[in-house]
Write a structure and sequence with these properties.
Elements: H1 17-23, E1 24-27, H2 49-52, E2 92-102, H3 104-108, H4 113-118, H5 122-129, E3 133-139, H6 141-187, H7 191-228, E4 234-236, H8 239-248, E5 252-255, H9 257-266, H10 270-283, H11 286-305, E6 313-319, E7 327-329, E8 335-337, H12 339-360, H13 364-383, H14 402-406, H15 412-417, E9 425-432, E10 440-444, H16 445-451, H17 453-462, H18 469-477, H19 481-491, E11 496-499, E12 509-517, E13 522-524, H20 529-532, E14 540-544, H21 549-559, H22 580-589, E15 601-602, H23 605-614, E16 622-630, E17 643-650, H24 651-658, H25 673-686, H26 689-710, H27 725-744, H28 750-756
Parallel strand pairs: 1-2, 9-13, 10-12, 15-16
Antiparallel strand pairs: 2-6, 3-4, 3-5, 7-8, 9-14, 11-12, 11-14, 16-17
Helix pairs in contact: 6-7, 7-8, 10-11, 12-13, 17-18, 17-19, 22-24, 22-26
C-alpha cells in the first residue's frame, strides 16, 4: 500500500490499456462466480483465486499449501499464491475486449469531451459508436487529386453508356408497341383493348427510363460525395455508401463503432488543433467563436496533463477486486451478490460471443450487432442508465453501476470519504444559553459522560473509587455520585469543538469550554449564533472532543469563540448583539421628555438607582448624576480623563456605560443596532480579546435583563377589542350588500364590483 508520506500530489488521469494491464493480476475469461456445489471460486472467473488471491489466509485453493511458512509460494497444482486473503480487497483483474469500446463518461457526459475534441455533435457521435453510420477516418488526398480526371472520364463514359442503353431499350419497346398496335388494328380489335396495350407499353417504357435515371443519379451522387469527401464525414449505411466503397474504396477508409473513434483519436494532432482553434477565436464571431473556445479548453487540458485522447476508447476493461463486489450466502442456501457481478457477467458473455463470431468469420452485419451489444454492456457497467433504458435486475430495479457506487449522497466520496463517522463525537438539538459566557457552551450531562467515558473510568481507578475497568464501567452506567464529581473535574479547562453543518467558513467550527447542564439539548451562547448561522427552531450541532494535548492547545488558542470575534472575510465583528438584546438596550438608553424625576441631581449612581427602586425616578428621565472615572471623547480642555464629573444623562445610559470597559468613552446616545455595531467595532480595535469578550457578555446580560423589564412583548390582554366594533362591521356589511345588489342588477361590471368590495 502507498503511504501518505511517500508522494507529494495526486492527479486523476485517463488510464490507458497498458496501465490497466499493469494493475491486473490476470485476465477474467469466464462469467462464472463460484461453484454452487463446492462453494469455491471458479478458475478464470469473476472470483478466481488464481487472479485475486486466496479465500483463506495462507492457504491455496487445493489445500496443498497451508500455514504462513509457505508465504509467497505459487501452488503448482492450482496456481494460487499463498498469502493473506486481504489481498482480495486490493488485487484487480481485467477483461481483454474482442473489439474496442468507447468510455461513456467522455462521450455522454455534459459537455461531451469526445464531441468537442473531434468537433462532432453528440448525436452524430452516437450514430458512429452504435453502428448506425460510417465515419471517414482517412482520405488519400494526393491519389484522389492525381486520378480525379481519369475517374471523372470513366464516370462520364459509364453515364453515357447507361443513357445509350436506356434510349436503345425504350426505342426497342416503342417499335414493339407500334407493331402490337398495328396487329390489333388489322384484327379489328376494340378501342379498349388497344388502349390497354398502349398504356401497358408506355408504363413499361416509363419504368425503364426511371430505372436508368435512378442509376445515373446515384452515380452522380456517388461522384459528388467522392469529390468532396473529407476526414470526419458521416455516411449512413445505404446503397450510395456501398457504391462509393465499391468504386473508390482505395482512396478512403471508413469505419463504424469505437474502432472508428479510436483510429481518429490515434491520428489526432493536439498541437495543430490548438493552433487552428486559436486562429478561429482570433478571427471568428458569435457561436463559432464560443464553440472554438470550449473546444480549446478540452484540447489544452489534454496538452497540459499529457493524457492520450486515444485512452477514451478502451481495449481492456478493469475488474475491481472481488471483496469490493462481494457474494454472500443467505439462510436457505441462496446467494446475494453485488449488482456489479451481473454487469461484469454481461460484458464477459457478450465479449466471448463476439470473439467466437470473429473466429467463425461471421457476416459483418452480425458482428457489428454483437459489437454494439458489447458497447452497451460496458456502458451499463460504467454508468447504467446514462444512455437509454437501464439494465434491471429482480423487481425491475436498475442495477448499481460503478458510477452509482461513487456519485451522490450514498456514494463512496460523500458517504465514506468525506462523511466519515468520528469517535468521541455526539450530536444534539441546540437551545439558547443566555447565562453562558462567550467561551462556554452547555453540554448535556449524559452526553458529556459518554464523550469523556474513558477519561472518567481512568480517573475513577486513579482515585481508587474502582479497582478495575469493569467496576469503573459499572459505576458510570449506574451514574454513581462520584462519577459526576470526576466528570466535573475532567471537563474543567478542557475545550470541545462545536460544528454546525453546513460548514461554509472557518467559524462554522469553534471551541468552547463545556458546562454541564440538565436535559438533552446543547446550549449555545446567543452571540455566536451569527457565526454558525444558527437559530433555535430545531437546528442540530455536533460536538467533537480534541484528544491530544496539541489539539487541545490549538483549539484553545485558535478556535475558542472568544478569540474569534472578527469575521475572517472582512475583519468586522461577527459577535454582535441582536434581537432581544437590542430591544433591551434601546429601552435602557432611550431619553423620555417629562418622565418622573426629570431635572433632579444625584450625588452618585447608587443614589440614582435607589431613587428608581423607590419609584421616584424613571429609567429614561433626564437627570444629573455625579459619576466617577469618566472618560469623554469630546472633553473640554481643562477636563482630566478618568476624573469625577457631573453629567447630564439618564439613569439608563449610566447603567449601560457600566457594561463597557472602565476607560471607554462615555456613550451619551441611544444604543440602537448601528450604535452597538460601532461600539463593538471600536472595542475590537482598541482592547485585547479577553476584555472584548467580557464586555460583550456584560452587554448581552444588560440587553436580556432590560428586554425582560421593558414589557415590549405582546400578550392577549394587550389586544383590546374596540367597543364600537359591531357598528363598524354592520356599516361595512351594508355597503358591501349595496355593491353586490348593483352588480346583480347589471348596473356595474365584475371589475368594478371587486374594486368596490
Amino acid at each position: 500500500m502507498i503511504d501518505a508520506t511517500t508522494f507529494d500530489q495526486l492527479r486523476i488521469g485517463l488510464a490507458t490499456s497498458k496501465d490497466i494491464r499493469e494493475w491486473s493480476y490476470g485476465e477474467v475469461k469466464k462469467p462464472e462466480t463460484i461453484n454452487y456445489r463446492t462453494l469455491k471460486p471458479e478458475k478464470d472467473g469473476l472470483f478466481g483465486e488464481q487472479i485475486f488471491g486466496p479465500s483463506r489466509d495462507w492457504e491455496c485453493s487445493c489445500g496443498k499449501y497451508k500455514r504462513v511458512r509457505f508465504k509467497g509460494i505459487v501452488c503448482e497444482r492450482c496456481g494460487v499464491e499463498v498469502t493473506k486473503s486481504s489481498v482480495r480487497r486490493e488485487r484487480m483483474g481485467h477483461i481483454e475486449l474482442a473489439a474496442p469500446v468507447t468510455h461513456i463518461w467522455y462521450f455522454k457526459g455534459v459537455p461531451s469531451r469526445l464531441g468537442y475534441l473531434l468537433d462532432m455533435a453528440p448525436k452524430d457521435l452516437e450514430k458512429v459508436i452504435y453502428f448506425a453510420a460510417y465515419m471517414v477516418i482517412d482520405v488519400d488526398e494526393e491519389g484522389r487529386h492525381a486520378d480525379m480526371p481519369g475517374l471523372e472520364n470513366e464516370l462520364r463514359l459509364e453515364i453515357k453508356n447507361l443513357e445509350q442503353q436506356r434510349d436503345d431499350r425504350v426505342n426497342a419497346r416503342l417499335v414493339q408497341l407500334e407493331g402490337d398496335l398495328a396487329a390489333l388494328e388489322e384484327e379489328g380489335a376494340k378501342a379498349d383493348q388497344k388502349r390497354k396495350v398502349k398504356d401497358a407499353g408506355e408504363k413499361e417504357m416509363a419504368q425503364i427510363r426511371k430505372s436508368y435515371d435512378e442509376q445515373i443519379k446515384q452515380l452522380e451522387e456517388v461522384w459528388e460525395q467522392f469529390r468532396t469527401l473529407k476526414v470526419g464525414d458521416l455516411k449512413p449505411e445505404d446503397s450510395v455508401f456501398h457504391e462509393l466503397q465499391d468504386r473508390y474504396g482505395l482512396y478512403f477508409e471508413a469505419h463504424m463503432g469505437a474502432e472508428a473513434i479510436k483510429r481518429r483519436l490515434e491520428s489526432f494532432d493536439l498541437e495543430a488543433e490548438a493552433e487552428l482553434l486559436h486562429e478561429q477565436i482570433a478571427n471568428g464571431k458569435g457561436q463559432k467563436k464560443i464553440r472554438a473556445i470550449k473546444r480549446l479548453r478540452v484540447v489544452n487540458s489534454f496538452l497540459q496533463t499529457g493524457n492520450s485522447p486515444a485512452a477514451m476508447v478502451l481495449d481492456v476493461v478493469p475488474v475491481i477486486p472481488p471483496e469490493l463486489r462481494p457474494m454472500v450466502q443467505l439462510d436457505g442456501g441462496r446467494f446475494a451478490t453485488s449488482d456489479l457481478n451481473d454487469l461484469y457477467r454481461r460484458v464477459i458473455n457478450r465479449n466471448n460471443r463476439l470473439r467466437r463470431l470473429l473466429d467463425l468469420g461471421a457476416p459483418e452485419i452480425i458482428v457489428n450487432n454483437e459489437k454494439r451489444m458489447l458497447q452497451e454492456a460496458v456502458d451499463a457497467l460504467f454508468d447504467n442508465g446514462r444512455r437509454g433504458r437501464p439494465v434491471t435486475g429482480t423487481g425491475n430495479r436498475a442495477l448499481k453501476s460503478l458510477s452509482d457506487m461513487l456519485k451522490g449522497k450514498q456514494g463512496r466520496f460523500r458517504q465514506n470519504l468525506l462523511g466519515k463517522r468520528v469517535d468521541y463525537s455526539g450530536r444534539s438539538v441546540i437551545i439558547v444559553g443566555p447565562q453562558l459566557k462567550l467561551h462556554q457552551c452547555g453540554l448535556p450531562k449524559q452526553m458529556a459522560l459518554e464523550l469523556f467515558k474513558p477519561f472518567v473510568i481512568k480517573r475513577l481507578i486513579d482515585l481508587s473509587h474502582a479497582q478495575n475497568i469493569k467496576a469503573a464501567k459499572r459505576m458510570v452506567e449506574r451514574s454513581r455520585p462520584q462519577v459526576w464529581d470526576v466528570l466535573e473535574e475532567i471537563i474543567r479547562e478542557r475545550p470541545v469543538l462545536l460544528n454546525r453543518a453546513p460548514t461554509l467558513h472557518r467559524l462554522g467550527i469553534q471551541a468552547f469550554e463545556p458546562q454541564l447542564v440538565e436535559g438533552k439539548a446543547i446550549q449555545l451562547h446567543p452571540l455566536v449564533c451569527a457565526a454558525f448561522n444558527a437559530d433555535f427552531d430545531g437546528d442540530q450541532m455536533a460536538v467533537h472532543l480534541p484528544l491530544s494535548v496539541e489539539a487541545q492547545a490549538e483549539a484553545r488558542i485558535l478556535m475558542l469563540a472568544s478569540n474569534n470575534i472578527l469575521k475572517p472575510s472582512d475583519g468586522r465583528p461577527v459577535t454582535l448583539p441582536s434581537q432581544d438584546m437590542i430591544i433591551g438596550l434601546h429601552h435602557l438608553t432611550t431619553q423620555t421628555d417629562g418622565a418622573v424625576g426629570e431635572g433632579r441631581a444625584f450625588a452618585s449612581l447608587a443614589e440614582a438607582i435607589l431613587a428608581k427602586d423607590e419609584g421616584t425616578l424613571d429609567l429614561n428621565a433626564k437627570v444629573k448624576i455625579r459619576l466617577e472615572n469618566v472618560y469623554l471623547q469630546d472633553a473640554p480642555e481643562d477636563f482630566v480623563q478618568g476624573s469625577t464629573k457631573v453629567l447630564e444623562t439618564t439613569l439608563g445610559r449610566a447603567l449601560f456605560n457600566q457594561a463597557l470597559p472602565a476607560d471607554y468613552w462615555y456613550v451619551e446616545a441611544v444604543a440602537d443596532k448601528g450604535k452597538i455595531s460601532q461600539i463593538v467595532n471600536d472595542l475590537a480595535e482598541r482592547y485585547p480579546k479577553v476584555e472584548v469578550a467580557a464586555t460583550l457578555d456584560r452587554i448581552k446580560d444588560a440587553g436580556f435583563y432590560w428586554a425582560t423589564r421593558s414589557g415590549v412583548t405582546v400578550a392577549l390582554s394587550d389586544i383590546v377589542t374596540p367597543a364600537d366594533k359591531p357598528a363598524i362591521v354592520a356599516k361595512h356589511e351594508k355597503a358591501a350588500a349595496k355593491v353586490q345588489g348593483e352588480y346583480d342588477k347589471g348596473l356595474i361590471d365584475d371589475a368594478t364590483r371587486r374594486k368596490e368590495l
